[in-house]
Structures
1.
Amino acid sequence: MLIEDLFRAPWHEQVLSELSKGIMTDEQLLAAIVKDWETSDKRNLMVLGERYYRTKMDIEKKMQDITWRSNQKLAHDFVKKLVNQKVGYLLSKEPTIATENEEYRKIMQDMFDKRLLKVIKNLGKEAINKGIAFLYVYIDEKGELAFKKIPSEQIIPFWKDNDHEEIVSFVRVYEEVVYTNTQKQKQKKVEYHHPKGIKYYVLQADSLVPDVLAGVETNYHFTINGKPYLWERMPLIAFKYNEEEQPLIDCIKSLIDDYNLQASVNADLLADIPNFIYKLVNYGGVDLQEFLNDLNRYRAVKLDENGDVDKLQADLQTDAVEKELLRIRKAIYEFGRGVDTQDENLGNASGVALRYRYSDLDMDCNILETEFQSSLEQLIWFIDQYLLMTGKGDFTNEPISIIFNRDIIINESEVIANCQASVGILDDQTIRENHPWYTEQVEERLKKQRQQEQMYNGYQGAFQQQQKDGNVNE
């Protein structure tokens, strides 16, 4: 069997066991997998996406053979803007937790605190940059359920099927700084997470040796009050950007590189061509440097008999470059499926026009949301299991939905006018929910206000009745 076959479904412990009976041992097989992964195109694309997000682009490699020529290296941060635009649009607002069980809803609201919501937001950024992001589920030192985002390039997942729906085991490869005999050095750690525990290794000279400091091996995934447990599922959840796990950078890298190059070359021309070109006839000086010094210092130059100085205007033709840059910019936002906020007509657009301009962004976020909803179902499974294990309740069969509240750009005046026009057609609750200023806090305050009004009306009615009864008695 070839190494490539390891990445085809199904992958499980039995496959590894059968392979180890042949030519390769478990450690040799894992070492070969790690070596193959670190040079794979998929991992390189993940590193590339992260690099471009951090504005470390290929334009930095631009060279200039002529020493006196300018060598501008202009990096335009389209990737960061597009990624942050998608994350902000879909994941910036606090989601709505929908369930009919009030106790369950309160528990899940505590679980989905600001820390977890921040992790989910960062998972969105990681998924867009690298095609896929990974959330590790574990029990912390306090015995509480915790979550950690692991960099995608560190994870080698083994999937149960070709659709990549369920991870049955995975390898994590990362570097760690250690001190040996007061000397600082980096070690490459390798962890093999399988259904029956975790094996720890250190990669040395393309070979895996047991990591004694990490404990070599554990036959559990976590402990609660000293009691070991194994998850029924691998505690690693994949959050995908799309079904193909294709990162954003793969769609727009060539366009960004072309934009950076065109802008940098144009900047070189502007820097190298002066505003005036001097024409010298019978110059009486030694060299051009002396001419420039005399001109700048004395506002005069030395000329021989019949000498003359003239200047020629340097006309720069940049219209073609500007049109090309504009064309590339439009292509970047079209194929990056985002919104160019420098669009002159964006600010005055009506509600319909705004929705049209945001249609590509909305479509891309629809795909991202579909993938994230599937992953959140797995996350909720781990939360339900933790609640069951710790005696906090059995909610495994309780229906629940996590609803993303998008940060949609709207024409608020139009929406408010439509709400007012819907009075008598729709119920008050529906109208309020579609109002741009509506939140759950508004609904709670409105309920309290109504309760206070009812209490006040009740007191007032009782007081009036007492007055009426008093008048009758008199």
2.
Amino acid sequence: MSNQTRPLISGLDHVQTEAPAECEAEARAFFTGFLGLPELPKPAALAARGGAWFGLPDGRQLHIGVTPNFVPRDKGHLALRCPDLDAVTERASRFGIACVPDAELAPTRRVFLCDPWGNRLEILEGR
């Protein structure tokens, strides 16, 4: 055990998920259009790499990074929280996005869906 009084890690800054090249328009349509997250400007030094960054309401960020030989992730995933899961699933239906409900964490409600490139995404109800 360490004599350290402060934690070494103070929190989570951002998460990054992978996408294929030229993903930016689909990223904006999904993460801003569907999920309502604001797009954030990427630093100039990173902008040439492609991808897009989005802000979460708590100040953390979601980064979409371009990766060569992209393969969708069907196990590892982002998990986002929402205050009203019914509103999310109704909006997903209007956007033509399939949501699969899951009751394994009952009473916590959650659904699984895929981003535009087939990566798994979990949305849990709760604040």
